[in-house]
Amino acid sequence: MKHLGLKSRIRRKKVNRKRIKPEYTAENILSRNFVADKPNDLWLTDVTEFKINGESKRLYFSPILNLYDKSIITYDLSYRNNNQLVFKMFDDALIKYPLAKPISIVTRLSGYM
């Protein structure tokens, strides 16, 4: 390349991210203390994205984890990552465990839903 006077050019990868300002950020109640003293006291959830080989679709998996015994209470799968995915999963968990009172986050977030 030097002999022919060729030089490589490294292009930056284009990142297409929309920067949005979150409407609401919950306070950090757990402070990274992921231990529960009694069943159904602390529940955690997250949404994981899976790419499907050979398709342009993506699959979203959202479970609820009971921190007392590290068991999955319920989960939901969807092709859309939206609030309905989490709300449906949470409603299913409350139907399965109607007496559960997981932390007071539900009470605190109820005004924002």
List the helices and strands and how they pair.
Elements: E1 43-45, E2 48-51, E3 58-66, E4 71-78, H1 83-96, H2 105-109
Antiparallel strand pairs: 1-3, 2-3, 3-4
Written account of the structure:
The chain is α+β, with helices and mostly antiparallel strands. It has helices at residues 83-96, 105-109; strands spanning 43-45, 48-51, 58-66, 71-78. Strands 1, 2, 3 and 4 form a four-stranded antiparallel beta sheet that branches. Strand 2 and strand 3 (58-66) form a beta hairpin. The longest helix is centred in the C-terminal third of the chain and has 14 residues, at 83-96. The N and C termini lie far apart (60 Å).
Quick overview:
The chain has 113 residues and is of the alpha+beta class.
List keywords for this structure.
113 residues; alpha+beta; 4-stranded antiparallel beta sheet; 2 helices; 21% strand
Order of helical and strand elements = EEEEHH
Overall helicity: 10-25%
Stretches where pLDDT is under 50 for at least 5 consecutive residues are: 104-113
Which value, in Å, is the CA radius of gyration? 21 Å
Structural class, from secondary structure content?
A: alpha+beta
Content of β-strand: 15-25%
Number of helices: 2
Principal-axis shape equals elongated
**How many beta strands in the DSSP annotation?**
4
Oligomer: single chain
Biggest sheet character: 4 strands, antiparallel
Instruction: Measure the end-to-end span.
Output: 60 Å
Mean pLDDT: 79
